[in-house]
Design goal:
Number of helices: 5
Largest sheet: 6 strands, mixed
CATH topology: Rossmann fold
Order of helices and strands: HHHEHEEEEEEEHEEE
Number of domains: 1
CATH architecture: 3-Layer(aba) Sandwich
Strand order of the largest sheet: 3-2-1-6-9-11
Structural class: alpha/beta
Helix content: 25-40%
Number of strands: 11
């Protein structure tokens, strides 16, 4: 299983290089689609992510969410886990682990994770069943079980939606995948 996932990651990395010129257009379309969804419109507390250069950029959703008065959260890498922090705007970000921009300031309390209405989850690849291939460090594998009430959206570019992703019994699929 590990070798299959490693090979898939390598294949996706190669495809990302080939399609890089399309990322801004595809990111814009993803944000437009999410912004029109009822789960976005109705959500009060939303977990997003600040994109790496090879991931769908959600900056327009971060901006829109702030304007709409949503409580926005971004993950911060702390050791082997993701801690969720409040996102208050671009000025509240600093470069953290893996050169990802992360919010500084107050943690979102673990005891309140059940209040997260919507979670946008990045991945190297997804399948139509919602199975996710991550980067191999398990951060979201450890976070997703803490979000049982959230509507989870896997976010990826079109070439990252595969027919099947190898999964194990402990893997938690996302509810929907948006490309």
């Amino acid at each position: 299983m590990v070798n299959v996932k490693t090979a898939l990651r390598k294949e996706i990395r190669g495809l990302k290089k080939s399609y890089q010129a399309h990322f801004p257009m595809w990111s814009s379309e993803i944000c437009r689609r999410v912004g029109q969804m009822a789960c976005w419109r109705e959500a009060r507390t939303v977990l997003l992510y600040h994109a790496l250069s090879d991931e769908p950029d959600l900056q327009s959703l971060l901006d829109e969410g702030l304007l709409q008065g949503k409580q926005l959260l971004l993950p911060v890498v702390v050791g082997d886990d993701l801690v969720l922090k409040y996102f208050k705007g671009k000025d509240s970000l600093r470069e953290g682990a893996f050169h990802i921009l992360e919010p500084v300031g107050e943690d979102f309390p673990l005891a309140q994770y059940h209040q997260i209405d919507l979670a946008l989850i990045p991945g190297m690849a997804f399948d139509c069943e919602g199975h996710r291939l991550g980067r191999g460090r398990g951060y979201y594998d450890r976070l997703l079980p803490r979000l049982p009430h959230a509507h989870t959206l896997g976010i990826c570019f079109p070439f990252q939606l595969l027919d099947a992703i190898p999964s194990e019994p402990h893997d938690i699929p996302v509810r929907e995948v948006i490309i």
